[in-house]
Amino acid sequence: MSGGPGRNPRVRIGLAIAGAVIVVIGLIYGIRWMTHGRYIISTDDAYLHADVVTVAPRVSGYIEELYVKENQSVQAGQPLLRIDTRNYKDALSQQQASADARQADITAADSQIQQQQAALVQQRAQLAGAQANVRFAREQSERYRLLRDQGVETEERYQQAENQRDQMVATEQAAVAAVNVAERQLATLKSQKGQALAQMEAARASVSSAQLNLDDTLIRASVAGIVGDDTARVGQYVQPGTRLLSIVPLQSVYLVGNFKETQLERVRIGQPATIKIDALGDSDIHGEVASFAPGTGAQFALLPPENATGNFIKIVQRVPIRVSVMPPKDLASRLLPGLSATVSIDTTAQHEAP
């Protein structure tokens, strides 16, 4: 009678080998988990995000032209739409005409100042002549006084010299007054020019504002991306701040994972991450821890929890962590904001924040 299967040497050897293989595999997985696996933290509470730019006009008016369509790719600076420019062109022409008028006022003021400066020179020259005449008349009066006292000249001739002296003094005083008037007039003209310069600056500011309004009728893309949420239509009347469309920068998509606070002991900025997007199956995408939120998600809720109550129940909080996404070229265009994901962070790499 033959023995059972356990007594067959070949069976025993096969079972021993199988057991050894299982033990080795278990040891490998155990060692790997002890040295690496237990330091991998993950969460499926993760979603793709992008800093979506809302496009809104700065001026009001009717939309005249649309240059883009929904889901179209655009570059930074590319025209998106134009608002009717007629009113803004008229306003710019009006402000430019006002600025030209102020420039004419300044030119006229310069001419008047130059003319008054010439008149002032003339008045000062006349004053100098009058002062010379006064000095001569006084000398003549003094000379005839001495001659009269000596009996050489008559009293009448001396009085004539005094009268001529008094006339020269009056002429000098009139010349002094004329110089004072001319100086005040020059100061007045300079003040008027300063006022005209101020009005010119105000007119230039108005021209600049009108030009800015005219330029703002053409709305351009501030960033590169894909057009989405397009509600703009030709003929639509829009007000400043009206949301017309959005630009989604797909090239700058990032991931936000909400990790439990108990998982964050070894997490550091710069550590590598592995991302799986639910919509893309099992494709692995590399990432890197970029930053931590300045508070838990509950702190930024509309009604933050208040735990200072009698009935307190401790709840594990979640902290949003931003992860930079580095997708391959064939997947970059398929990473859309809002997609769900699973992210794992390798905390064995001890990177630190700069």
Question: What does this protein structure show overall?
Answer:
The chain has 354 residues and is an alpha+beta fold. Among the domains are: 64 residues, OB fold (Dihydrolipoamide Acetyltransferase, E2P) (Beta Barrel), CATH 2.40.50; 130 residues, Helix Hairpins, CATH 1.10.287. The chain contains 4 helices and 14 strands. Helix 2 packs antiparallel against helix 3. The two termini are 78 Å apart. The mean pLDDT is 86.
Strand order of the largest sheet: 1-10-13-12-11-14
Low-confidence stretches: none
Radius of gyration: 47 Å
Number of strands: 14
The class by helix and strand makeup works out as alpha+beta
Q: CATH first level of the domain at 86-215: which class?
A: Mainly Alpha
Note the beta-strand portion.
15-25%
Helices and strands in order, then pairings?
Elements: H1 9-35, E1 40-49, E2 53-55, E3 61-66, E4 73-74, E5 79-83, H2 86-150, H3 155-215, E6 218-220, E7 225-228, E8 237-238, E9 245-248, E10 254-260, E11 272-277, E12 284-292, E13 318-326, H4 329-332, E14 340-346
Antiparallel strand pairs: 1-10, 1-14, 2-9, 3-5, 3-8, 4-7, 5-6, 7-9, 10-13, 11-12, 11-14, 12-13
Helix pairs in contact: 2-3
